[in-house]
Amino acid sequence: LVRILQISDLHIVGEGELAYGVVDTAACLSGAVNYIQSVALNIGKVDGLLITGDLTDNGRAAEYERLKELLNPLNYPLILLPGNHDKRDTMFDAFTNQIWISSSEPLNSHHRFGEINVLALDCTVPGQPYGELSEQTSFWLREKLAEVNGKPVIIGLHHPPFKSGIEHMDAQPLKDPEILLEILGQHVGPKLVLCGHVHRYITCFHDGFPISIAPSVAHSVYLNQSSGAPSEYALEPGAFLMHEYDPSIQQFTSHLVQVGPHPGPYPFFGNQKN
Ligand SMILES: [Fe+2]
Ligand SMILES: [Fe+2]
Questions:
Q1: 32 alpha carbon to ligand 2 midpoint, in Å?
Q2: In sequence order, which ranges of 72-226 are alpha helices (DSSP H)?
Q3: Over the stretch 43-92, which tens digit does the pLDDT of each residue have?
Q4: Most CB within 10 Å of its CB: which of 75, 121, 140, 237?
Q5: What is d(CA 72, CA 76) in angstroms, rounded to the nearest whole number?
């Protein structure tokens, strides 16, 4: 079994700052890290931690340093890709010790966990809120999928290639999503596509494979699909995803896990009252 945890949209700010003047994003991440540690024995071995972008809120070096400190207790192999709030160069400089980082232009990376290949894509466009697969990244993805040659693959990128129905988020989409979908269509093996950006758990099924957006461990984008709805966030419970691949049945399974602690566990049977 290969098990990958996915956290997303951490939006880490500097020491003493709050995102949007309200959200203590470092406390949200540290809560998630503590919770993951507390359930680690229950879920079993974790092979990698995938972070699907917006690692920091402003892409500043101090924010990446703070992020590294906050992630330190987990000690899992990292799979990082940038979001529109990140800055390639600063992110590259912060993680040059990671062997898989070879270039900041763009920050694409290939990771292997047993039978599974994880391809982390950089779909950011410097200075823009929307995303786009550059020609360089499209070429890289085609080459990597050819190399993977039908083996199970996880593809990560920040901007989802489908609409959420939330207007102000759909206004900063992955441009030309059909380019990505066409390339993915060339891969015949099992595949799972993992995104962030929308700060909500949303899954779309395209051509028989799932494309999921992870929730944020910090603030959520407020669910309002009415036309002209304002750009708003809410403080819903932070959550993350746990993805597993079982090679014996060639199947991906994804769990949504809300950050605790929660009351419980309680036995279903035994000497409970009521
Ligand atoms: Fe975000
Ligand atoms: Fe984003």
A1: 19
A2: 88-94, 135-148, 167-170, 177-185
A3: 999 999 999 999 999 999 999 999 999 999 999 999 999 999 999 999 99
A4: 121
A5: 9
